[in-house]
Amino acid sequence: MNPVLSWQEHGECHSAAWRSESRHQPPQRIEAVAQISAEQALSLIHQNTALLWRGDYHQGKQLLAAIKKRVRSHSKPAADFHRHRLQQSQHSRLFNLLLLEVQPGFMLANGRAPDVQAALADVYGSANETPFLLPLNALLGFIGAHEWHKQGVPVPALGGAHIHVPFGVFSPLRGEYLDLLASAPLPPHTQTAWDIGTGSGVLAAILARRGIAHIIGTDSNPRAVAAARANIRRLGYSAQVQINATDLLPAGSADLIVCNPPWLPAKPGADIETALYDPNHAMLHALLAQAPARLNPGGELWLIMSDLAEHLGLRPANALAQWFADAGLAVAAHSHTRPQHAKAQRQHDPLHHARSRETTSLWRLVPQ
Predict the structure, then answer these.
(1) CA-CA-CA-CA torsion sign (93, 97, 103, 107)
(2) Over 80: is that where the pLDDT of 344 sits?
(3) Which among 67, 68, 127, 151 is placed 20 to 30 Å from 210, CA to CA?
(4) Residue 51's pLDDT is what?
């Protein structure tokens, strides 16, 4: 249930639901403005007063850009991962306190406002019948995500076919680990496979392209389930792949279980970050505890894992090997690659010292 916020405007009391994809608390106060300097805006925002922007849409974007520039210019680079995450969260809270009022039918009343109906429908589904408040920063993210959703991400491991990912679902931009999955030798006579935490469905699609006859992809995120089903259907693999709204493993057993779990043991700040952050590696531990007993004879568990957590000091270097052994699993093979994404190359990135050393591995595990 979205919280309802109230404010005074022109001597009248107004109220509307507040929507935000972040996990920040709603603002304590709201002040409607049509013109304000970035300095004045920041002064109010630092007091946890949200600004309901009534002015020109593009001027609102300029105000948000000015706020971001001032906040970042006064912030020193974080010395470690936890401080970096805290700084990110603090910045996100500030940037999300410049609001727009979305009118019924996903319409904006601001001057020169673009048509945002398709972008908001991509996130929320059916159009709203009552107004709601939305951070401008979030709306810009929705618009960008909608364009990516339409365009799709080309995947070389799928012969260049595109995977289309809506907002709220992790995008397969890191193709290097997809290539590991596409080239690893399958267990002999593999007929059944599970893709756990399927997300966009890209791993299930790669397994289908490799000729596995019966594949089940599972995910507990409704947006991911819908996206995976759409991608599988679009790629022509519906006869081989079934996508289930299931948390972790489906019923039965499989010849191959594949999972790309969250790599970093930290608390997510938004729902979309659950694909990256998982406190205490909870999903990985649950999978290791359950998967060995669900493999058919001769079956394998494939894990795609980055060692970034080790370089950030979030996981001991020997932890994975110990966890595998504790679960009764042995390493049948191990292949790895270096990331090619832009962040790994940015020397000014606060976490460059770790990203520059990162490797991504495919662990092929078998019951002992």
Answers:
(1) negative
(2) no
(3) 151
(4) 98
